[in-house]
Amino acid sequence: MTIRISPSILSADFANLERELHRIESADMVHVDVMDNHFVPNLTLGLPIVQRLQEVSTVPLDVHLMITDADTQAPKYAETGASSVTFHFEAATDPVATAAAIRSNGARAAVAVKPGTPITQVLRHLDAYDMVLLMTVEPGFGGQSFMPSVMPKLADARAAVDASGLDVWLEVDGGIAVDTVPEAVRSGADTLVAGSAVYGGEPSQRIADLRAAAAAARA
What we know:
Blueprint: E1 4-7, H1 17-22, E2 30-35, H2 47-56, E3 61-66, H3 70-78, E4 84-88, H4 95-104, E5 108-113, H5 120-124, E6 131-135, H6 151-164, E7 169-173, H7 181-186, E8 191-194, H8 196-199, H9 203-218
Parallel strand pairs: 1-8, 2-3, 3-4, 4-5, 5-6, 6-7, 7-8
């Protein structure tokens, strides 16, 4: 199982985002948090900035939409050329159709669930998604503590993906650091979002440390 590292620019210097993207060129993707101050109580960046990030980034964009009206907005972010677009299950009226629209616009389609949201309905339609993101904190702010209570749900998702034979990635986001990576990986995660754990030090070394922790957990 390949482990992917996706640093979150929510923890980066917003005044120097192009520089911050270049600092994580050893990562597999860059996690771009889009918040609208409605679905979550925070406001970050929107479509014009994501378009510009796509133009300057050498790392594929992993766009995470924490916004209302995901059905309408998610395909627009796919049109930017982003590698992956994630919308929240809780914000979509027809998650399967929204995922199909993302795919039709050239991006991998991903669905996210909050810590308290059952994953049963997502697992019933695994073939509609390329990735499932399980939030390990409540969405909206960086720097929160990892929630181990999500791990049984992650394990259920891993069992379902393995049984299906589908190439569906399982991403975790929230409180991911060297000390929490082992539990997440052992529970089935293959894609790790880390914000302050990367940008809180020298990013390339922090990314290497996360990879080492993941490899050790799989040994």
